[in-house]
Design a protein that fits this description.
The protein is 58% helix and 0% strand. By secondary structure, the protein is mainly alpha-helical. The two termini are 31 Å apart.
Length: 158
């Protein structure tokens, strides 16, 4: 596993939800592009910067789970943080130590506010569901839970 690539991808993965990466595209694309530019300007090779772009651009879908170890582990870590991962068996002592060092500081509320800001700034919102989601919706109403419900799936109080 390439721990440097995973670190860069994980640290920069939500850059598109900040003022550092405004633009008309979904936050994953804007953030991935800003991260790639940032890394290349600081001497990272185009190839490695593109791998970071791929990890970030694909991080809200499940594609990274079917890519290399670096992409898969980054994706699972982000998913665990946001909504939990079914069947994840993390040592409670390890989780407690991570939370001690890096408290969540109202993460669920703040992240939901960032997602809402993203939608408010980009009307109409440019991200469409997968075509199969549309088929499923037209067969019977597709239930799509709101962000706070998804955030509450994470195994953290806040």
């Amino acid at each position: 596993m390439d721990s440097e690539l995973m670190f860069m991808s994980a640290v920069l993965h939500d850059l598109g939800l900040t003022d550092h990466a405004p633009g008309p595209h979904r936050f994953e694309i804007e953030g991935a592009t800003a991260a790639r530019t940032f890394l290349v300007e600081r001497g990272l090779s185009e190839d490695r910067a593109q791998k970071v772009w791929d990890n970030i651009a694909l991080h809200t879908w499940d594609m990274n789970q079917f890519r290399g170890d670096t992409s898969r582990l980054m994706q699972l870590g982000l998913a665990y943080d946001v909504s939990g991962v079914a069947g994840a068996h993390l040592d409670p002592a390890d989780v407690a130590e991570v939370l001690r060092r890096y408290p969540r500081r109202n993460f669920k509320r703040a992240f939901n506010e960032m997602l809402n800001h993203e939608v408010d700034c980009k009307q109409p919102y440019p991200h469409w569901f997968h075509i199969c989601s549309r088929v499923a919706h037209n067969r019977s109403p597709l239930t799509i839970v709101d962000a706070p419900v998804v955030l509450d799936w994470a195994p953290f109080d806040e």
